Amino acid sequence: MAEIKTDYLQNPLTTYLERLASKDPVPGGGSAGALSLSLSAALLSMVANFTIGKKRYLEFEAEAKEILKRTEAIRQEAAQLAEEDSVAYLQYRRAAEMDKEAPGRQEALIAATGAGNKILLRTAELSRQVLNLAKPLLEKGNPYLLSDVACAVSLARSAFEMAEINILINLSGGLNLPEASKINESLRALRRAVISESEEILIEVKRKLSS
Question: Which CATH number is 26-210 given?
Answer without folding.
Answer: 1.20.120.680
